[in-house]
Amino acid sequence: MTDSQYKLWSFHGGLHLPGHKKMSTGQPIGKYFIPERLILPLQQNIGEPSEPIVSEGEYVLKGQLIARANGYISAPLHAPTSGTVSEITEQLIPHPSGLAATCIIIKSDGLDKWVQLSPHASYENMDPSALRNRIRDAGIVGLGGAGFPSFIKLNPGSRTSIDELVINAAECEPYITCDDMLMREHADEIIQGTLIMQHALHARQCLIGVEDDKPEALKVMSDAVKRLGHGQIKILAIPTLYPTGGEKQIIKVLTGKEAPSQGLPLDTGTVCHNVGTAAAVYQAVIHGRPLVSRIITLTGQGIKTPGNHEVLIGTPVNEFIEHNGGYHNRIGKLIMGGPMMGISLASDLVPVIKTTNCLLGQTQQEATDNNTVMPCIRCGACMDACPVNLLPQQLYWYAFARDMDKIQDYNLFDCIECGCCCYVCPSNIPLVQYYRFAKTEIWAQEREKKKSDRARNRHEFRLERLEKQKKERGERLRKKKAALNKSKSTDKKDNDKQQAIAAALTRVREKQKQHSVISKNTDNLTADQKKKIEDADKRRQQNNNEKVPSEEDSDS
Amino acid sequence: MQFNKSTSPYLHNTRDIPTVMRLVLLALLPGTIAYYYFFGWAILINITIACITAVICEALMLALRNRPLLFLKDYSAILTACLLALALPTLAPWWLIVLACFFAIVAGKHLYGGLGYNPFNPAMIGYVVVMVSFPQYMTQWLLPDIDLSLIQTLQLQFQGITPVSMTLDSITSATPIDSIKTGLSLDLPLSQITSSSLFGAVGGAGWEWIASGFLLGGVWLLYKDIITWHIPAGLLATLALMAAIFYIVSPEHYSNPAFQLFSGGTMLTAFFIATDPVSASTTPRGKIIYASGIGLITYIIRTWGGYPDGIAFAVLLMNMTVPTIDYYTRPRVFGVKR
Ligand code: SF4
Ligand code: SF4
User: Fold this and answer.
1) Secondary-structure class of domain A22-363 per CATH
2) How many distinct helices (H) and strands (E) make up chain B?
3) Least distant ligand from the CA of A382
4) B326, containing H or E segment
5) Domain boundaries, chain B
6) A162 at the B interface (CB within 8 A)?
7) What is the pLDDT of residues B32-57, one digit of tens each?
């Protein structure tokens, strides 16, 4: 039963997009296959890439740690199947830049033999921090697409508890159905995972938001909640509207709270996790299984047999697609993720990674961007669609004019790049591209500024140090002089010393004079300049006369 | 396998500028048909002259500015032309229309940088230029009960030849709004002025139906999500409110709100002219302020000013304030506390 009494909220804008979800929900989730070669990029999460702890030629078991987390915001990596580490090398990874990065390559032996796991029948008596460690060690990152290490978001931080744990099952992007299918088939795991998260966070309330275009999932989940939820969890049907699945958007819809601009949901006492993550948490905590596989939607008009499949992390995309029916010959574009926020792949020789939720094949016809770009007519359609209530037309204007201050005044950094503005723009302006450009530009500027700030700081610090040294030296000199004067008449030996010093001084002075003569460039000078130089010389001489060489002077 | 790369989003709706403009043109139909029904051929002739001029000017300017001619397909010049034709006097001589269109497209639009860059509504620029330069022609509104054939209308507009047994004065008049103003200045009571055949049930005879046509088209645009409610509502409400205040105070000296709404170019402006996105305010609150400004200035000029209808001035004046309005009416961004 969904709770129909519960008050829902809404956010500005958003789009009713054609869902195309039915095409991939006809079959149950397909079982994974074991490819010959698995490619495991060290960077599969937001934050630092992991650090390999295996070497080439080493035999690894399924679930064995192969790369450890490097720093706090990082996640470890496990072998998705048993086999031999054949290489640790640069490989093409699915990233907008289309660049290569370090990957561990595993040649599978087909046995799929698990490493010794340590299951834990119950979590209730486990300490939250032990839970977090277990989740961290399982390499779990946000499976909704962002890939932020999950254990960090299971830490209430300075708060003793949080108000709401929101489980994001909106799945608002068209075509994607992996969460839908997961809920239909593994609702129990999700609910138990949610309870574990609630325990870790001391969350007062758990809200699971499911878009109302998934009636089957809603029913199964409600039943599971009734059985397992201990009255702690609410399943809520929320209106289907893109991008309700955005973290801040779903929190607003379910709780009415707005995470502060450029801040975190935690700032308002809320934490949001994806349903897939909840299931993975259950697997990790109860069965001790690290994250080695996930569910992916393979769909689109360019794909022969759309559906959902479990797939081992690291499976090459081309093999995965071939194994599951292959491309339709009208394929024109391959997108990892959804059609609104996914990244377009230049090649299918990249692996599936932890955050890959969908592979979408668009047809040639869909892919040809023959839309002519026209000037902005200020129609405001973008503004009406923006879920963050920005003024996309102004952002575009300032990005276009490269006015990086103004564009930040207009809250560029609150833009979630959802693409709503772009979708509705009658002038076909690639607005989001402009925003990405501006963000990159500003980051670059800030890096530059930091660099020059650092350089300036260094310089100022040096000047300060020199100044200080000079002062100290002067101080010491004064003291010394005073002491010298006192002892002048009394100590004869000292007198000799004085004379020696005086002699040395004259020598130094002579030398300096010579030096200054050599270095002087006095040809073709005006009378005025000559006079200035003479004055300067005089001043220098006076200085020299006052100076008494001492050991401190040796470094000057 | 290799694929073409691009950046998200990979979906796009199909409503591009030409589609939008076509829908707006379509929405002008009911009003235009009513115009034709009550006043005959003249409006069709005017629209034809305006469109031909506008397309020629647009093409020339695009060529001069080295822009692809495909911009012609955006229908924006045609829309400007149609709005002008609908706003200018029924029996305006052909060259007046040509001149207005020329100024609208060349000075109002392209000299500012073309589509999307013009701070002023191009149609209103053209309108004001001819209104200021040739005020005597701005009163040539055909009387509703005169029936002119196509040939007669063409002769009149192109050669200035009035049909036999008719003088220009006998078939044209000032607008109802203008005649109220003139009448009032002669100390005639309002009820006497509006009893002439120039006036219909609520607005000018015939004109009230044309206005209703535009209202119908405008509501359809709202329904189609081409325009938002803010501008029409803001404009009509302010105008009606002003009229109501003065009408309540002194009904013998001030026309009633319904008359203000259904005569002159009120409806055309509220739904089609003030809503021109390029020159209007874009924020929701901004749109209301902008439109209210137009309503207010229109009422003032209509009631006390020296020009027959103040709408064109009102629109241009408010166009000037748009950057300021937009700046101060930025919506609250998600997660930002007021
Ligand atoms: S939708 Fe496009 S044309 Fe309209 S205001 Fe936004 S950027 Fe400009
Ligand atoms: S991409 Fe950014 S500006 Fe555009 S609608 Fe989304 S949040 Fe708003």
Assistant:
1) alpha beta
2) 16, 2
3) 1
4) helix B311-328
5) 15-173, 175-329
6) no
7) 999 898 888 888 999 999 999 999 99
